[in-house]
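Reviewers asked in the last cycle whether our approach scales beyond single polypeptides. To address this, we selected a multi-component target totalling 642 residues and predicted its structure end to end. The input consisted of the following lines:
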Amino acid sequence: MLSVENVAVELPTPRGNLRAVDHVNLTVGAGRTLGVVGESGCGKTMLSRAILQLLPKKAKLSGRVMFDGQDLLQLSPEKLRKLRGRSLAVVFQDPMTSLNPVLTIGTQLIETLQEHLELDQATATKRSVELLAAVGIPAPEQRLTQYPHQLSGGMRQRVAIAIALSCEPKLLIADEPTTALDVTIQAQILDLLAREQRRRHMAMILITHDLGVVAGRTDEVAVMYAGRVVERAPTPALFKKMRMPYTEALLAALPRIDAAPHTPLPAISGRPPDPTRPLKGCSFSPRCRYAVARCHAEKPDLAEAETPAHQYACFHPIENHAGAAA
Amino acid sequence: MLFFVARRLLYLIPVLIAVSLLTFFIASLLPGDLAYVILGDQATPEKVAALRHDMGLDQPIWIRYFGWLGNILQGDFGRSFRTGQTVLQAVTERFPVSFELMILAEIIGLAIGVPLAIVCAARSGGAFDRFMTGSAFAMLSLPAFLSAILLIYLFAVELRWLPATGYVPFAEDPAANLRFMVLPALTLALAEWPGIMRVLRSDMIATLQEDYIALAKAKGLKASRILFVHALKPSSLTLVTITGINIGRLIGGTVIVETIFALPGIGRLLIGAIYTRDLIILQGVVLLVAAGFVVMNFIVDLLYAVLDPRIRHGHA
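The resulting structure, written as structure tokens, was:
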């Protein structure tokens, strides 16, 4: 239903062009969930903004974003507007800043419904109450007249999800929907998203820096590093046998509940490469513990592995089980 | 909300007391004894001393202050020793002129500044934005006496559309009144709109970077709704502040514009009082004008709360 083909995003900066997204290919089928994982600055948010066409004005975007048979990059602004919020919805990272502070929850919900569905005020209000109840907000009628600052962070993110779900979108992009929330709320919000995704049979892209988040909740995972997809596989296959050293390092960096107290976390040493100065070789090679001379000289392509649908970009994929490597 | 208003009103009391103190003491610092001013240079010392005693001028200054304040609290602001008119009479006679001028100037200023700011912010960095920002800067540096003369030359002398000077009360003939008011109001508005535009434009540009604007776009809302509903209200706090300050400033009339266009407003009253050393009028009018300024700022505070619910609920 959504296919991202060869999408690249370049941002002009004073130090030269910054390649935020480097020729990414992804697909999501109807009713399927794709996890996009990577550390901060790897281009996952830029990728989501590229799909939504919400990039900064100066950004240069190339490639194709096919959604329901039409290329979003070629659509007229008016057609794109009718698609956004209606078929293509988004939940942003920080619910403290993504809701308008001077408009009531009710206004922000109802305006979306009325923009796309031509409902009268009474029906739209009724729908809004149902939506708020569906995302687990107590006393939904009273919330309609409240302002965002009167709600907790978790409640605000539920409101943002209700807004995203309001017009029954075909695809929901959730851009780090739990990063700004308390740990205790994170699982609730993720479960809510997963439940609504199944119930409404919509496709979802779940963007996160946390491999643990995608583990049980996605059908497929794409791991991004320095603007590129470096490994892509069905979720069970990935966790069974990850091939890319970066994926392994990401997993190893997760705190484990069964580790002894005060065990140091194996953080990935070094920093991601400067995106304004692309490396000649594999962009992970400076930080990779398996890297050899070829890794520094040549960029590996994203290629099919022996298992179908498992792709990775590495000359020296890991052979043993991921758990053992950590 | 009621609590918010009550608390703001309480803040007004010390401010007004400070205003009355400053007004009284600054007026008493002016050179020249009031008794000499009234009696003229030829007065004998005995007559001066008698008058000083009658007027209470021989009392210590703080006793005179409390006497003055006590009279004011009873509604007596004093009386001009020249015309015999009370301060309140003089002000109520002149105030409608300055008030109308102020309202018209602000309406014209906002009507020019606000739409330009929105258009410039929506296309910031574009050719129109750069042209308007430059023009606003040029207009800002144009002094009122110059724009007044240019407007008079264009509309009164060359085109002969509007009268250059004069005044008719609104109640007497509204159409004629407006014809007299257009040029002075336009002169003031020409100095108002650049500030309005620059402040609102930069606030709008900042607001348009916010996440909630990106979300409003992602919701598929129309561009006009995003600009006017989602962006304008959170961007208008500074605009309300400067409009409030401008209005407060113009409540006291504008000496230059009222003089050029021969409008009998507060500004002319003040200038007249200074020239004739009419200290009672001066003192009373300055106090009333300052009080008007303070009350205007109180209204601005209330408007903040109307615009931003977080202020209303005591969160910010």
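Residues 321-326 of chain A have pLDDT under 50 and may be disordered. We regard this as preliminary and will revisit it once experimental data from Aim 1 are available.
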